[in-house]
Sequence to fold (544 residues):
Amino acid sequence: MNNNPVLQISDLYVAYGSILALHGVCMEVHKGELVSICGVNGAGKSTVLKAIAGVLKPRSGSIRFKGKEVAGYKPEQLHKMGMALVPEGREIFPSLTVEENLRIGAYGRRLDKSFAADLEDLFNLFPILKERYHQAGGLLSGGEQQMLAIARGLISKPDLLMLDEPSLGLSPALVDQIFELIIELKSRNITILLVEQNAQRALAIADRAYLFANGRVEYSGQPQELMGNVDITSVYLGHNGGDV
Amino acid sequence: MNAEILFEFVINVLSMGSLYALISLGLVFVFGICQLVNYAYGEYITVSGYVLYFLGVFTNLPWPVVFLLGILAGVAIGFFSELVAFRPFRERSLDALLVTSFAVSIILQRLFQLGISPRSKAVPVPAFFNLNIQLFGVITPLRNLLIIGTTIVLLTVLVLIMKYTTLGIAMRGASENFVTARLMGVPANLMISAAFIISGLLAGVVAIFWSARTGSVEPMMGGTPLLIGFIAVVIGGMHSLPGSVLGGYVYAFISNVLSLTLPSSLLSFRDAFMFAIVIAFLVLKPEGLLRGNYQEERVG
Fold:
């Protein structure tokens, strides 16, 4: 682990109106790492991703991305700098074809040979997207939509890929597929920040983990320690460490 | 009904519908991207109309140049009104934007009244516009056919842009889900500027044919096309570009059917019948004929 994290957050406060959702969160993600954020509903997991990606403006605190202070930046600026957020609920563009969804994911990229090569590479990861290339995104199944959402994030070649609840609402078989995919992405040395309610699965593949509760980082460290700590798992993650 | 009446009816519906389709399309382009019902849209048409008037009366420029400058005036007012009036309030709320659009509308109307004249001004129209031509036994002014042709060309170009260019695809994405499009790197300002520019361009084209039909411009002239645009959009669907075009033609169809079928004693109430149909649409099919794929309110 080097000393210059891709992402470094310190003392981050985010509020929805007058309601404080994050209370002084500190965390960091290093190059090539897979970091998981776990916690129950309302713990602030998605909020921190939205703040990092520029959808929510922080009330105070610092977000450094690749060494640069970016708190308050617009989402499109952050995307240009190399961030990609695969939003909760997939949020694909339903009337746009798979191709058009990917074209938007590649916004700002030239549609040249390297783009074509990356697209081919994505089709190896997600053969279904090649099959459905000219179909409207809204006609895809939930699992296929999630594949498309992740592919749409990857096509920009991000330096930090953020996945917000990628397994949400998918059948157990598809959840397996998504987690295999995340392991594959990690093996390609892609830096990943993963938010998951399915803590057991998320911790099993993570290099490091943060446990959120009530808008604070309650615990951070090695996933094995977290999983082994009976108090933590029973209090914050439910008795078997996950809700699936 | 004999063939000539039918053919006349078809030409009337298509020419009127083409104009109405362009009007409502200009409204929906902006609404699709920023959920703003732009009440100043009628004044974009007026601005273009006055440019056509001034250039037509006080210069000897050839018609194509006058038309082009008139359309450019629409583009300019669309672009700059967004930049100056709407952009500063965009991150506040939709209500603030709506009130701003009222303000822009009223300010422009007063500027026309004080700066030009409260009375209407005759807009010179090229002679060929009113040339009566005979087609399958029906006599119709050439402008009725020109608006149909112009609309076909404009719609084709817009469809090509929206379907095949990165800007167009991004605009369609942004109109379905603005926040997610921004997360993919699509710049909010560019999308909104582009929407206002296209809206202004359509207003400019509308101004040419509107002033050719009425023969004049006046400060409050934007109100009627704005109302027509609203009705077409209610019929066709606020969240769908094809829907707004369809709405324009359906509106023209209903309006012409009413003209043909209402007994002469009721003809003066044609608009009342029209509004009754619009209310029926609002009650029975509030999302319009084509639904679109609008997802969530935009943020920032």
Q: What stands out?
A: DSSP finds ten helices and ten strands in chain A.
